[in-house]
Amino acid sequence: MSVRPPADDDLDDEPDTVAFGIAALDARLDSAEIDFPADAGAVRTAVGDEEVPYNASGSTITVATALDRANAEHFENEQDLLNALHPVFEQARESNRTGLLGRLRSFVPF
């Protein structure tokens, strides 16, 4: 997922969007040296300390923590890894709603 950052015409070198969740993890995996198939230990060694934002506010979770919360230990390819970690990032995003709107949404059961 990604959102557009606030408009500021003076900053032309800033990215057009701010990536978070699986999109941010995917960008980090592109620069990591992980040979698939891989187990969780190999992924943890390569990118375990990486902080990945899971919401547009910039709250982060480490890849190692996400791997600990996932129910998978072996990944055939990068997409398999992303699919396994997606629910972890969604759960983190849902459980850390901030601001008035987030608090109001937490009271509504849907």
Describe the structure.
- Helices cover 47% and strands 13% of the residues.
- The model has no long low-confidence stretch (mean pLDDT 82).
- With 110 residues, the chain is α+β, with helices and mostly antiparallel strands.
- Helix 1 (22-31) packs antiparallel against helix 4 (78-95).
- Strand 4 and strand 5 (60-62) form a beta hairpin.
- The radius of gyration is 16 Å and the shape is globular.
- The protein contains five helices and six strands; from the N terminus they run ββαβαββαβαα.
- It has one domain (17-98).
- The strands form three sheets. A two-stranded antiparallel ribbon has the order 1-2. The protein has a two-stranded antiparallel sheet with strand order 3-6. A two-stranded antiparallel ribbon has the order 4-5.
- It has helices spanning 22-31, 40-47, 63-69, 78-95, 99-107; strands at residues 2-3, 18-19, 38-39, 51-53, 60-62, 74-75.
- The longest helix is centred in the C-terminal third of the chain and has 18 residues, at 78-95.
Please indicate the count of domains. Answer: 1
Which spans of ≥5 residues are poorly predicted at pLDDT below 50? none
Radius of gyration based on Cα positions: 16 Å
- What is the SS-derived class? alpha+beta
Order of helices and strands: EEHEHEEHEHH
Task: Report the principal-axis shape.
Answer: globular
Span from first to last CA? Answer: 21 Å
Report the β-strand fraction as a percent range: 5-15%
Q: Helicity, in percent?
A: 40-55%
